[in-house]
Structure prediction request, 154 residues.
Amino acid sequence: MDGKTILCEINPLAFLEVDLPWASSTQEKPTPEAVLRFLCPAEERFNFDIERLLGRYRQISTESVRLFVAPAEQRILDKLIWPLRNAKSSFMVGNYLATVSLSGMVSEMVAMLLWEITASQINGRAMMKKDEEILFGREFENLGQDRRVKVLLA
Prediction:
């Protein structure tokens, strides 16, 4: 060693209050605080503050017009509404990578929804999947993000 102290995190992927064999040794039920500690980033895990969590919620909840109701259509709920809620809650607990990932996924789903509800036509008839393949080289949903944006703009 070169005299430097090496710090390490003991089993950072484990939720010790739930995972065996640790959980069986205590026989205690995990508390809501233990769940929050597991969800929060490493730097806040042992010093999380409910006010900081609520502050992040307020920070990400600044839209002037809020969604009042969502259609009870399962695909919209599964692909748009719940992922957006999960992105918001990820931001709230400080999981910014998940926030960005989920937001990107929702953007992709919105692009595909826009394509589906657009009555795209070719030669006076509704465009079919085979038409998409001929025009774009593959079906719309299999295009890259940049190409999908260009198609939607056109």
About this structure: The longest strand covers residues 121-122. Strands lie at 121-122, 125-126. The mean pLDDT is 85. The first helix runs from residue 22 to 26.
